[in-house]
Amino acid sequence: MRRLLNCAANATKALRTKCLDLSPFKMKSHPLVLCSASFQGDSVCNGAHSKKALLSDPQLFDAQFDELLSELTERDMNDSGLTDALKRLKEIMVYNVPGGKKNRGLSVIGSLRELLPPSQLTQDSVQQALLIGWCIEMLQAFFLMADDIMDASVTRRGQPCWYKRDGIGLDAINDSLLVEASIYRLLRRHCRNQPYYVHLLELFNETTFQTELGQALDLMTAPPGQIDLNRFTMERYKTIVKYKTAFYSFYLPVAAAMYMAGVDSEEEHTNARHILLEMGEFFQIQDDYLDCFGDPAVTGKIGTDIQDNKCSWLVVKALEVLSPEQRSQLEVRFKSLFFCLSQSSSNKARSPSLNYLIT
């Protein structure tokens, strides 16, 4: 249980943001001797060691992306008729997958290091942990690409959303599906001979289903053009957060590492899941705060929760403390805001602060 708590603690540290006096987590450097950029060779590298080959986990992780990208877009298909499509896939991957903090992906190798003693952490297991970490980053990219379309977002990670780029538009829907499908190509190729392969497939499929249920609930809670503050309850908020964010951001990376380490009992996964989902809720509350009050130059995105009529923590907490008269005023201001936005040709300006709505 102590090992699971360490994994959970590392996962939440890695996903902290710069609010509520929390400092960003620095990934621990774990030197690993690698023989080449393709990470081939046995555990002793045939005696060939190089100082340049001593890399930290984040460096190993970044180097792995180029290898996976080449595999998916250059070596995976030999049909010359697919050249343009594979070129497009490469562009999609480069633009959407590696631009974040990569903390979800790095949590896999970080958790595995907590679960296995160094003597059992082979070069192959490190490679597989890095690959699974990138599959989680790809899953997130798939979610975000689709979410940006549904929310009509403008920026993501400091650059225009993928669908906002010239010539992309709603083609981004198929692009996001390409990213998702690539996950299972990689898992099949690199992990199908592992005893945890079926667990991984079930974990990724179940997490995708849970996240999409959360997205559906989020969209249903705040349909466009309809203001109904009665839907904004703490119970509804926590359910959305649990399914839309916490499962894939916190439980998925740690659970994947647990399966890799041979930890597959239902009791241990239940305990870990309970802890990690609580951490996911805390993380989302911070994210909601930053969406309204964060600096886009720091967060990398323009907050739109208020314009999008989202069931965010700020609004839910406001509704808990407002008097009936203040609640009525808030509802009037919401309706006024959305009317103004509907009349504007550019309805994705910087999110107004909550103070604007309730003062």
Automatic annotation (TrEMBL):
Key enzyme in isoprenoid biosynthesis which catalyzes the formation of farnesyl diphosphate (FPP), a precursor for several classes of essential metabolites including sterols, dolichols, carotenoids, and ubiquinones. FPP also serves as substrate for protein farnesylation and geranylgeranylation. Catalyzes the sequential condensation of isopentenyl pyrophosphate with the allylic pyrophosphates, dimethylallyl pyrophosphate, and then with the resultant geranylpyrophosphate to the ultimate product farnesyl pyrophosphate. Belongs to the FPP/GGPP synthase family. GO terms for cellular component: mitochondrial matrix; peroxisome. Its EC number is 2.5.1.1, 2.5.1.10. GO terms for molecular function: (2E,6E)-farnesyl diphosphate synthase activity; dimethylallyltranstransferase activity; metal ion binding. It comes from Nothobranchius furzeri. It is an enzyme of class 2 (transferase). Gene3D superfamilies: Farnesyl Diphosphate Synthase (1.10.600.10). Coiled coil: none annotated. Keywords: Acetylation, Cholesterol biosynthesis, Cholesterol metabolism, Cytoplasm, Hydroxylation, Isoprene biosynthesis, Lipid biosynthesis, Lipid metabolism, Magnesium, Metal-binding, Steroid biosynthesis, Steroid metabolism, Sterol biosynthesis, Sterol metabolism, Transferase. The gene is FDPS. This is Farnesyl pyrophosphate synthase. Pathway: Isoprenoid biosynthesis; geranyl diphosphate biosynthesis; geranyl diphosphate from dimethylallyl diphosphate and isopentenyl diphosphate: step 1/1; Isoprenoid biosynthesis; farnesyl diphosphate biosynthesis; farnesyl diphosphate from geranyl diphosphate and isopentenyl diphosphate: step 1/1. InterPro entries: FPS1-like, Isoprenoid_synthase_dom_sf, Polyprenyl_synt, Polyprenyl_synt_CS. GO terms for biological process: cholesterol biosynthetic process; farnesyl diphosphate biosynthetic process. The keyword Acetylation applies. It comes from the Eukaryota. It catalyses: isopentenyl diphosphate + (2E)-geranyl diphosphate = (2E,6E)-farnesyl diphosphate + diphosphate; isopentenyl diphosphate + dimethylallyl diphosphate = (2E)-geranyl diphosphate + diphosphate. Its main location: cytoplasm. Its cofactor is Mg(2+). It holds the Pfam family polyprenyl_synt. It is found in: Cytoplasm.
